[in-house]
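Box 3.1 A note on notation
Throughout this textbook, protein chains are presented in two layers. The first layer is the amino acid sequence; the second is a token string describing backbone geometry. Keep the layers aligned when reading.
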Amino acid sequence: MEESGTSNKNKKTLKVLLAISLSILIFASGLIIGLFCRGKDANKINKLLNLIDENAVYQSDGEDLAEKAIVNAILSKDKYAVYYTKEEYSKIMQQDKGRFTAFGFSFYYTEDRQTDFEGGIAYIAVNSSAYKNGLLVGDKIVKAKKSGGEFFDVKNNSETTSFFAGIGEDEQITILVNREGVFSEREFVISKSFYVTSYVKYIDSQIEYNFISEDGKSTKGQTTGSGNSSLSLDTAYVRLEEFEGNADKEFAEVMDLMKTRNRTKLILDLRDNGGGYMTILQNVSSYLINNNGKNKNLISVAIEKDGNQESYYTNGNHFNKRMEKIVVLANGNTASASECLIGAMLYYGDGFSADNLVLTYNSKRENYSTFGKGIMQSIYNFSDGSAVKFTTAKIYQPDKKTCIQDTGIETPSELNRVENEDALKRAIQILS
């Protein structure tokens, strides 16, 4: 793991899980029952489990069933509570480091996700098979087949999901792709293979800069394209996917690149960024928060069940003094650490304000807002490699009063409430 924690609260490591979890990673030992039950209850449950194990004729197959049942029963009101087997937790830890075995893309869906399936590619992971074989965001997959199989039309959500889920590691498939105005039903062969992804992309008017993996173990920044001519000569666009892997090191590199290339205005894209490690957030925020040059700036405060408070700060101040203005792009999947960052940037306000926040429609809340994740989960590890996660605190912005749980962050400007495809255009207008 990138860094370890202990049960000593002064040494806790806060992290935000992939989609929506801002978490403290704590290593502990002992039986899971001991977390929830004390005294007579613990003894009774231990006896009950032993009786079942020794005498019951009908038992469900599989490991960790009792632990999962306890978590589901006692923490049924906590939608983030989950018990991880050793294998499940190991996979999560690998993904947190940017190591995946997958095709490397995700899709657009229609409103009814259970039936109709649009097949449009919404995201492509750098260094994945999809990336290396030339697929682009906006491509539409119309047919797919396994090696030696027959093509089927990519229309039904459940059928398509089952198809991709059923592909084994290193197995190849063939897809037919439409690229509007360029080609129709072109054949691409991709595989569900291991890759190390990156989390940061830089674009200005002249170059595109990505972090490419050539050895399958690490990434290195390099110019990969000619840029976006719609960006002015003083503007840089930076896409931050998650606060995972080497995102803070990659972000630091593109901030230095931005400075070297004399870009003084920044478009920071946090759409679909669901969070990541708090240590990475602390490093990233040090480039975006100035607060009169102070080296230590409060990002967020976690208030636990017993009232204990944990405060989290930037690790230094690397704010570019030549930075004139920052625009942030966000949506209904911008969550946890991303919301902490936006909240802190709004609080300190150097080059950024609520009028510089561009939001797309949040269909779950039916307004223009971010996800609204203002609670924290803790992960507790056990000696056998398994783990349990559940909610342990509320998260507040630097004012120590604002918690955005179930409300999210909004923008006061109606002009900044846009369709996804218009978000970048609006950001450019704000900076002009």
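The two ends are 44 Å apart (CA to CA). Residues 39-55 form the longest helix (17 residues).
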